[in-house]
Amino acid sequence: MKQFSLHDLPLGKRHILAGLVPGEYLTDGGLNFKSGGQRSHDVGCTCASCDGKGRHVHEHEHEIFVILQGKARIEVDGASHDLRAGDVVICEPGADHHLVSDPDDPCVNIYLHTGNQPHTDQEGRSA
């Protein structure tokens, strides 16, 4: 895991994470509004990167979290790190990772993935 502030990110490169993670493009991502205490990819999750027992791992890609509002805790391979608005965390391939929203100050976050091909729209066209 690597942790940064938004102020630490490079400017004037291909994308805001260029040089920090491999990949020429931002390929996937989204915006999450978490409830207080909510843990991402918890037991029962059926996404392709989960085992359904609470383990969430990307074998070949980094996942980046940007905390926009509130507070959270990131759990990476059993270690826990406190986060607040403006923090940026990079989880490396093979790391079991979960974002846990603060119960009293729930987080709003962006998650991102990078790659060597541009992202595609829902019909599979380069956007």
Descriptive overview:
The protein is an all-beta fold. The protein has one domain (2-115): Jelly Rolls. It has no helices and eight strands. It has a five-stranded antiparallel beta sheet with strand order 1-6-3-8-2, with no helix packed on it. A three-stranded antiparallel beta sheet has the order 5-4-7, with no helix packed on it. The protein is globular and about 35 Å long. The model has no long low-confidence stretch (mean pLDDT 90).
Q: At the third CATH level, what is the topology name?
A: Jelly Rolls
Strand content: 35-45%
CATH level 1 class label: Mainly Beta
pLDDT < 50 stretches:
none
Coarse structural class:
mainly beta
Helix content: under 10%
* Largest beta-sheet characterization: 5 strands, antiparallel
Strand numbers in spatial order across the main sheet:
1-6-3-8-2
Number of domains: 1
Order of helices and strands: EEEEEEEE
How many β-strand stretches?
A: 8
Can you tell me the overall shape? globular
* End-to-end C-alpha gap: 30 Å
Mean pLDDT: 90
The value of Rg in angstroms is 14 Å
Provide the CATH architecture: Sandwich
Q: Supply the number of helical segments.
A: 0
Keywords:
Jelly Rolls, five-stranded antiparallel sheet, 127 residues, three-stranded antiparallel sheet
Write the layout of secondary structure elements.
Blueprint: E1 2-5, E2 25-33, E3 63-69, E4 71-76, E5 79-84, E6 87-91, E7 97-101, E8 108-115
Question: TL;DR of this structure?
Answer:
With 127 residues, this protein is mainly β. The protein is built from no helices and 8 strands. Helices cover 0% and strands 39% of the residues.
